[in-house]
């Protein structure tokens, strides 16, 4: 059980360290890695959460210029995080399902919810400040704010939950729990933003004459300039966005898929140093196993197994291999006065049978239990290799599959397994589940937006900035050589889950304001109204940058890519979506 491996690991280390205190010690194996990671993950999450919140608070303070306002946003974030982590614990306690264990894949979960919950809080507080600037009455400002934001906050929550719910379709078990638990956290953030936050705002006495209310912030001034550029030249802006999407499309073919655990850790970390030592000085860290079903006392079967081993060892990454065939060769040499020329498989079945009979008289037949079954009908070839790249793994498994056809008798049932095959299959699952997650998320979001906004065109426009951001992000992963793993594969759902917030808010305000504002001023009014909270949301969500300090390399990649994603989705909404809405405004306003 993975749950108890940390205890097992600690016990082994506590026994070995005092005995071998005068030696340089390296621990290896799956049990050690799995047992060491929980503490690393726990420490990593605590540090990342603190850094992320610090970055977020600083950016919010600079722009909101109100300790109370920032405190209310942090309240929503904190309570949402408690709800998410607490629900994960309770679900695991009640079900016992390992889907709800906090694994490496879940390391990014608190930071992601932190930014989503922040988004809801920022929209409410920034809109309230704008309304209070005009109305100069707290109750009227709250009423106007919630009248404007209740529906978009509900919609963004539903669509974000739907995007993350696609993770439950992943064949990777931890991602099922990821999708369910983060959905609970988002639901609670929606509840808090819609009910608790307005109530708390109404309890405070606000000063309408304070700088936070009367004077525009840095980001508000930036939005004014951006709005002028976008709406003066919408065709040029849209063309520029399309150009970046084309660049991203060409980079998709360059994306490298790599799921090797060794590459998840920085050089210098305990686990990475151990893996490097095992690769460079010992037998390697990746096992390759071949299950052979047939007569394990037949000389032809044993000889073909030995020939296959020789073929396996021709690869420079493969260090060694062994099977029951090696044991038979060694026993044959021993009974022939240790003559090296007899270190071969005997040519007759009776001789092989005699060797096993002789061994059973003086040794324990169970010594062979890891190499052959009790009835000598199934044998196992085990090889160890250094870390291979994904490309090398596919080439090696394909080559060995061809060797089996050429060497082994057709009556034998031969199957490849071991970590190398698991890594190969994991690569296929990562690519497939990522593609399905993206497609299903976009379809679900498009359908939900079409139903609520009563227009298929609005549904299409809602997914335009998201699709563009996904293409650009994965394209740039290809250009910069960032590997796609089952951890970085979360990026697609994260981009869609967070980015849909911006598109829904823009569309919702566009439809609302189209009832009272003329078409000539509509787009500019929408950008002025919704642009500030979108940019502030994206800016404060640079808390994703905290992931850059993770001990896990894929999480570092997610950190960098998410900073880029927040920029691309927010700017994409305020440029590409705004430009499209401006170009199509006659059709959009006429029908609405």
From TrEMBL:
Keywords associated with the record: Cell membrane, Membrane, Transmembrane, Transmembrane helix
The keyword Transmembrane appears for this protein: yes
Domain SSD, chain residue ranges per copy: 109-203
InterPro entries named in the record: MMPL_dom (IPR004869), Mycobact_MmpL (IPR050545), SSD (IPR000731)
PROSITE patterns membership: SSD (PS50156)
SUPFAM superfamilies: Multidrug efflux transporter AcrB transmembrane domain (SSF82866)
GO cellular component terms attached to this protein's record: plasma membrane
Alphabetical list of Gene3D superfamilies matching this protein: Multidrug efflux transporter AcrB transmembrane domain
Pfam families, per the entry: MMPL (PF03176)
Compartments (UniProt record): Cell membrane
Name of protein: SSD domain-containing protein
Membrane topology: Multi-pass membrane protein
Transmembrane stretches, start-end: 45-64, 71-91, 111-129, 149-169, 175-197, 236-257, 426-449, 456-480, 486-507, 530-552, 558-581
């Amino acid at each position: 059980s993975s749950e108890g491996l940390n205890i097992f690991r600690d016990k082994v280390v506590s026994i070995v360290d005092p005995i071998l205190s005068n030696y340089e010690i390296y621990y290896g194996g799956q049990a050690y890695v799995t047992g060491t990671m929980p503490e690393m993950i726990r420490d990593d999450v605590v540090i990342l959460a603190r850094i992320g919140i610090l970055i977020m608070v600083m950016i919010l303070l600079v722009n909101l210029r109100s300790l109370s306002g920032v405190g209310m946003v942090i309240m929503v974030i904190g309570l949402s995080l408690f709800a998410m982590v607490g629900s994960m614990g309770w679900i695991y306690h009640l079900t016992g399902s390992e889907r709800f264990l906090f694994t490496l894949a879940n390391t990014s979960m608190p930071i992601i919810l932190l930014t989503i919950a922040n988004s809801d809080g920022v929209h409410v507080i920034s809109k309230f400040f704008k309304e209070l600037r005009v109305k100069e009455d707290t109750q009227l400002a709250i009423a106007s704010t919630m009248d404007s934001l209740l529906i978009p906050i509900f919609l963004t929550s539903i669509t974000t939950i739907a995007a993350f719910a696609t993770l439950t379709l992943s064949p990777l078990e931890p991602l099922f729990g990821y999708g369910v638990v983060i959905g609970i956290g988002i639901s609670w953030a929606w509840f808090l933003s819609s009910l608790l936050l307005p109530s708390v705002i109404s309890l405070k006495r606000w000063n309408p004459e304070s700088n936070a209310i009367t004077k525009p912030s840095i980001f508000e001034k930036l939005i004014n300039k951006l709005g002028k550029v976008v709406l003066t030249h919408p065709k040029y802006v849209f063309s520029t966005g399309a150009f970046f999407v084309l660049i991203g499309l060409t980079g998709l073919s360059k994306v490298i898929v790599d799921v090797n655990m060794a590459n998840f850790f920085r050089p210098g970390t305990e686990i990475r140093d151990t893996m490097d030592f095992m690769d460079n000085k010992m037998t390697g860290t990746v096992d390759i196993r071949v299950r052979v079903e047939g007569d394990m006392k037949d000389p032809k079967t044993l000889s073909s197994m030995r020939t296959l081993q020789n073929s396996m060892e021709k690869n420079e990454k493969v260090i060694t291999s062994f099977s029951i065939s090696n044991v038979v060769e060694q026993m044959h040499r021993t009974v022939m006065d240790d003559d090296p020329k007899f270190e071969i498989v005997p040519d007759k079945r009776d001789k092989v049978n005699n060797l096993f009979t002789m061994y059973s008289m003086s040794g324990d037949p169970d010594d062979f239990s890891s190499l052959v079954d009790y009835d000598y009908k199934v044998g196992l070839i085990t090889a160890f290799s250094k870390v291979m790249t994904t490309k090398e793994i596919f080439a090696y498994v394909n080559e060995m599959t061809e060797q089996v056809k050429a060497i082994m008798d057709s009556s034998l049932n031969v199957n490849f397994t071991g970590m190398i095959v698991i890594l190969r299959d994991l690569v296929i699952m990562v690519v497939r589940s990522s593609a399905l997650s993206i497609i299903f998320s976009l379809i679900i979001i498009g359908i939900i937006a079409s139903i609520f906004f009563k227009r298929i065109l609005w549904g299409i426009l809602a997914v335009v900035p998201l699709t563009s951001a996904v293409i650009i992000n994965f394209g740039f992963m290809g250009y910069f050589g960032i590997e796609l793993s089952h951890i970085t594969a979360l990026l697609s759902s994260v981009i869609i889950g967070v980015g849909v917030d911006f598109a829904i808010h823009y569309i919702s305000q566009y439809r609302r304001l189209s009832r009272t504002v003329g078409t000539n001023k509509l787009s500019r009014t929408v950008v002025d109204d919704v642009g500030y909270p979108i940019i502030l949301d994206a800016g404060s969500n640079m808390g994703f940058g905290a992931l850059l300090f993770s001990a896990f390399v894929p999480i570092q990649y997610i950190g960098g890519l998410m900073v880029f994603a927040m920029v691309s989705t927010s700017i994409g909404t305020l440029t590409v979506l705004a430009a499209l809405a401006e170009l199509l405004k006659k059709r959009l306003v006429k029908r609405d």
